[in-house]
């Protein structure tokens, strides 16, 4: 009857003919090789174009800071979807995190702010679980409703709480909170300086490696370390404990899980609440680490990008971390003199498209091959005829990258089998 | 199912009403908790919202929202989540404004041309998501969200002095070249402010939506795909083609969203062109349950809420409360519909069960008699 009244899953990704059935498994050495190849390509681009900022410590440091909120949102998505609940309300839960994080953060300690952000996100998660698990509302619809609701609430309360009395005196406004104290940052002593001294020589590959490592050990917020810990923790909890196995079984086949005595509702609730908490933490990171204040519209769709990063990462923490890193990198480009860097990366895109075209033609799929070749030529012309990319297009880079990456990888992905489907207790009887 | 079922209709109406009542209760709680008197606030809203100039405002706003709701609903009917209506209508309105400003044809020619441009641009932008879905398996939810942001970037790039933009005399605002007066859409000369003529187009669009979905083979196929893709496939519907087609239609409808504002109000596209209506459309489509009449009621309600709360600002309240009311309504309404749907299903099952049992009892009676 309507979108609210369907019991079938959303139309799954249609199978595309011509693809090979076999799926290559990414083992650890293979991943390392891919990373090394990407690094080689990056340093080659840097050496050829002279866009030194592509792998500088500053760029990588900024990329890391942008990747953390995206990664945390994605991790939130991972928990929910592993238990079979699609959570597009991540954006709203993130907004709650930015708001409550800054609200508690400016009045007390930033760490209490972090906690408040997590709790705020969890409340959003609880609401989502309530609607989708208890009432069986379509997951995407409930998520959208939560996004609308979170925006409405925070806009109202921001005006009420940040624009009066003490808060207004300390720099609050209807759309902005007073600043909170910073969370401690640290730099690994000695190592950071030494890496920097290697980086400034601009040697091929070596300096790039130094720049990247330097970015990872300079001015790192403690909250970033917490986030990294959560990634490792998520992997262990979900894939190495009985609790995790049960939780994932709810996302793969809830009826079977129920038959083994798993309380599916409870696991789904736990997963979605944790999911909200992680998104809230990502939001708190934005308001307390990235900018020290709450700002209306601060999340800028990062909840959605986190979801895209999770899909890109094939619903696994490692892949998600790579996806978040990629989007963080693209996000950081627009913060720093991005036009030149993006322009340099166009060359990389040309090479990749050319390789793809040759591969497709070799495999005798002429149409995609020719299309790739034509696009490669067009991008090459663009590269040669300009010196920089307009700022508006730099800001669109993360979104274009998301689309490109998903359209190249979506068919290789496997989502949890019962993801997004409505489940009723006892439906398998 | 064709038979008129009074209880069913009652349930259908009860759900949104319940949601609205709950929303007002929650809002009253929020207002009371923040130290403001809730009931006089509602009094002010209703008083002001029903004045004649407010009625005009609500109709004009409702026209835009109605088109947005329809655009989203087309996707919803086949289980496609076109979150990208927002980017589609902005991009469409921008290019339509650029075309309208560049030409000086007679109105009878130029107005259809502007509208057609908008629909084509909207359809193209939505079509990207449709193509990515059927050829590359990218979820339309993610791709349309990305396309929204990319649309923002494209408009930001083109809306500049020396490109398609045009700096006004005061030097403060960049907009597209204004559309010549001959191409302004007609208005109903109501007092104190006119009702936009585009409301006629919205009504026609609503009728076309109802007719296409409810009375044509295409609409039937579309709804079938929405309920079960595999069943539709088995009955010979090309699901992939349907996905692309309905995305194109949804995008074309999205192209119309900016038109009431462009042709009846602003006559140009500038930085203060309304944004975010695509998301409003999602809320309204949910509220109206994808039904052409329901969407109309939802659109008018949204216009009323915005008008009413706008007045609150002058009475010591904050107009931002509208976000709270709307958010709670949307969440309550989706839950209420689900509860009602489940209740209806149960009722149907028990009725069928009772009928079957009665039949079985009759049969066994007859058997006993004949034996």
UniProtKB/TrEMBL annotation, chain B:
InterPro entries linked to this entry: ABC_transp_permease
Compartment annotation: Cell membrane
Keyword Transcription: no
Transmembrane feature ranges: 56-76, 88-105, 111-132, 141-159, 195-213, 243-263, 321-340
Membrane-topology annotation of the record: Multi-pass membrane protein
CDD domains named in the record: TM_PBP1_transp_TpRbsC_like
A Pfam family hit: BPD_transp_2
UniProt keyword annotation of Transmembrane present: yes
Keyword set, alphabetical order: Cell membrane, Membrane, Transmembrane, Transmembrane helix
Listed name of the protein: ABC transporter permease
